[in-house]
Amino acid sequence: MADPIHSLTTLPDLDALTTANKYVILDFTAVWCPPCKAIAPLFHKLAAEHTIPNALAFGKVDVDEAAAVAAKFSVSAMPTFLFLVDGEPTGIDVGAGTLAAGPSVLRVEGSGADGPLVAIRGADPRALVAAIVKVAELAKGEAGGESA
Fold first, then answer.
1. What pTM value is reported for the model?
2. N or C: which end of the chain has fewer CB within 10 A?
3. Residues annotated catalytic, as ranges
4. Are residues 119 and 89 in contact, defined by beta-carbon separation less than 8 angstroms?
């Protein structure tokens, strides 16, 4: 089986992935980052379980190898998990109460504690699992029930 996580090193790589999939979840990481290494197996497992062809894809961005991709989204802390809809971090409605409010969960500015999810900053496994499961449900519903 092919790796469920796409390695993105250039903006054209990112554009190709976001053009082919409505929902894309990106893991901004670095080889020297211990929290990134700790959560990587969970992200890989979730990607393997929840990838939906042409609907939901997972990508990995090494900030040292893909500085332009990290700069596009102003990512400065690792790990950061960014949730894109149609190629933009516009926010995904994951449902009220799905994710606990906290400094690791970034919402659309001004939307409150239950606003649309934009990113998870840091190695927060509970938030990551809850968010990916909700996004997969949305993508699966829109794709007519297909999954990996």
1. 0.89
2. N
3. 33, 36
4. yes
Per-residue pLDDT of 25-48, as tens digits, reads 999 999 999 999 999 999 999 999
Instruction: Centre a 10 Å sphere on the Cβ of residue 6 and count the other Cβ atoms it contains.
Output: 21
Q: Which two tokens stand for residue 127?
A: 């938030």
Write the CB contacts of 83 (distance below 8 Å, at least 6 apart in sequence).
23, 24, 25, 89, 91, 92, 117, 118, 119, 131, 135
How many CB atoms within 10 Å of residue 101?
A: 11
Tokens of 63: 């900030």
- Among residues 120, 102, 138, the alpha carbon closest in space to that of 35 is found at 120
> What is the Cα–Cα distance from 131 to 119, expressed in whole angstroms?
9
